[in-house]
Amino acid sequence: AADLVVALGRNHLRMLQHEGVPAERLRLLRSFDPRSGAHVDDVEDPYYGTQDDFEDVFTVIAAALPGLHDWVDESLATREQVS
Known about the structure:
Blueprint: E1 5-7, H1 10-18, E2 26-28, H2 51-82
Parallel strand pairs: 1-2
């Protein structure tokens, strides 16, 4: 089973919960962005949008990745300490 399942939005999160993913393993991507409190929780789908919309989504994802990487590093370090 996955240690973490990352959802891009609240609807995605609800769908994953409905599919049986335990709540403690679910996180919204934007929760890894230290500035996320200043923004909506969802990563908007740029599919029918403009090039600027795609670039905005890239910026949102890029802002969350350092926090996600930190979470992975901390989880691996904790796992190694337990082993």
